[in-house]
């Protein structure tokens, strides 16, 4: 299906500021003379690459945002492009949790097609992250090419200055080598890991979730690990190769899941989530919650986690500030009184608040623990015991 031709008609009116890092580094929502909405991106001279934007203005691939106008300014570039309505992949996962493999494959396939078109134009994107892909009316669409480059003499220099998104950027973007299309293959692997686990690839627990076959089937994990190899030579040669490997791995994972020794009585996953594909490939949240080891928690758990952190921090501040200003206990020295107040504030306020936050949000070790509630209670008990020990030992040492 071709993208409809909707050229902007001057004059442009600024509607909203979507993002801004500096005066000439911003993303704006604008409307034209016909009240149609577009995006205007301001790119500073130090990161601007007019050749990339000019090349993008000559393609109309549905997996790439349509670029209408590239104006050169003394401070850099002003780029006018289509506004693609829809959530980013980051927002999809935040709202719905980790996605089923059958939902991930078409999304990654569409992003891979967009990346392949960029590579055909001689462009390396270098920032294929969950925030730069929107699920629009025509499917997944890459919406930003702010640090994309055409390989050349200055590529490595730029790689050491602009690294892309942490967790998605390939090792060579840190100055170890020159970027090429396999840099984007690495990012596609990290993007697939994010969608399957619901966890940021920058988090160490993402790797733990990937190693859990209940979260990511082994065939999928192997394909992702190869795409995310440290050496570009060990990765699939093209983005489309990776997408095809991922699709085949889903078939292998489905075959393993239907072996007689592992029967399933319903289309629900191991956590009770409905894994059946929905009409027209639309992704919908599953009411039963998110799978262990991945996914964004429900809104009420996030709010409760924030409240627990705030309460813990306030209690710690009360002990550290309020009680430190009160007279010490008769017969107890001021340093001992201060130490015990701080110990109680940290061990009975701040640390339990953080543990409760991580438990409710399914972060860190709680995301992969077999019994997260038991782990949470055990750690709270350990905080209480640690407080008693600190108070008792300090009293014995100072008073002795």
TrEMBL record:
Keywords: ATP-binding, Kinase, Membrane, Nucleotide-binding, Serine/threonine-protein kinase, Transferase, Transmembrane, Transmembrane helix
Sequence segments annotated as region (Disordered): 250-299
Highest taxon in the source lineage: Bacteria
Ranges of compositional bias, category Basic and acidic residues: 250-262
Gene3D superfamilies: Transferase(Phosphotransferase) domain 1
CDD domains assigned to the protein according to its UniProt record, in alphabetical order: STKc_PknB_like
EC number: 2.7.11.1
Transmembrane residue ranges: 304-325, 337-360, 372-398
Name of protein: non-specific serine/threonine protein kinase
Organism in which the protein naturally occurs: Granulimonas faecalis
């Amino acid at each position: 299906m071709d993208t409809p031709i909707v050229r902007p008609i001057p004059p442009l009116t600024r509607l909203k500021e979507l993002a801004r890092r500096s005066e000439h580094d911003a993303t704006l929502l604008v409307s034209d003379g016909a009240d149609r909405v577009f995006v205007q991106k301001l790119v500073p001279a130090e990161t601007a690459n007019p050749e990339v934007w000019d090349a993008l203005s000559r393609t109309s691939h549905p997996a790439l945002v349509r670029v209408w106008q590239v104006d050169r300014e003394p401070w850099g570039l002003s780029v006018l492009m289509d506004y693609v309505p829809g959530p980013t992949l980051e927002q999809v996962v935040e709202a719905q949790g980790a996605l089923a493999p059958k939902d991930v494959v078409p999304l990654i396939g569409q992003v891979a097609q967009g990346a392949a078109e960029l590579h055909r134009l001689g462009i390396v994107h270098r920032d294929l992250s969950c925030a730069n892909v929107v699920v629009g009316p025509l499917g997944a669409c890459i919406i930003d090419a702010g640090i994309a480059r055409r390989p050349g003499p200055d590529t490595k220099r730029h790689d050491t200055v602009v690294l892309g998104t942490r967790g998605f950027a390939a090792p060579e973007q840190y100055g170890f080598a020159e970027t090429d299309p396999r840099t984007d293959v690495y990012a596609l692997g990290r993007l697939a890991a994010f969608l399957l686990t619901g966890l940021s690839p920058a988090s160490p627990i993402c790797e733990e979730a990937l190693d859990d076959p209940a979260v990511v089937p082994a065939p999928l994990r192997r394909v992702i690990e190869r795409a995310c190899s440290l050496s570009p030579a060990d990765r699939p040669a093209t983005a489309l190769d990776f997408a095809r490997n991922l699709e085949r791995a889903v078939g292998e994972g489905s075959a393993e899941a239907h072996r007689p020794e592992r029967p399933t009585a319903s289309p629900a996953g191991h956590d009770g989530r409905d894994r059946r594909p929905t009409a027209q490939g639309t992704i919908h949240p599953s009411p039963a919650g998110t799978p262990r080891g991945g996914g964004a928690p429900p809104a009420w758990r996030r709010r409760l986690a924030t409240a627990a952190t705030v309460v813990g921090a306030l209690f710690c501040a009360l002990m550290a500030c309020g009680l430190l200003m009160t007279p010490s206990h008769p017969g107890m020295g001021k340093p001992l009184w201060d130490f015990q107040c701080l110990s109680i504030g940290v061990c009975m306020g701040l640390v339990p608040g953080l543990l409760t936050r991580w438990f409710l949000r399914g972060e860190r070790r709680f995301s992969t623990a077999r019994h997260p509630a038991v782990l949470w209670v055990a750690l709270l008990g350990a905080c209480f015991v640690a407080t008693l020990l600190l108070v008792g030992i300090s009293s014995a040492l100072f008073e002795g």
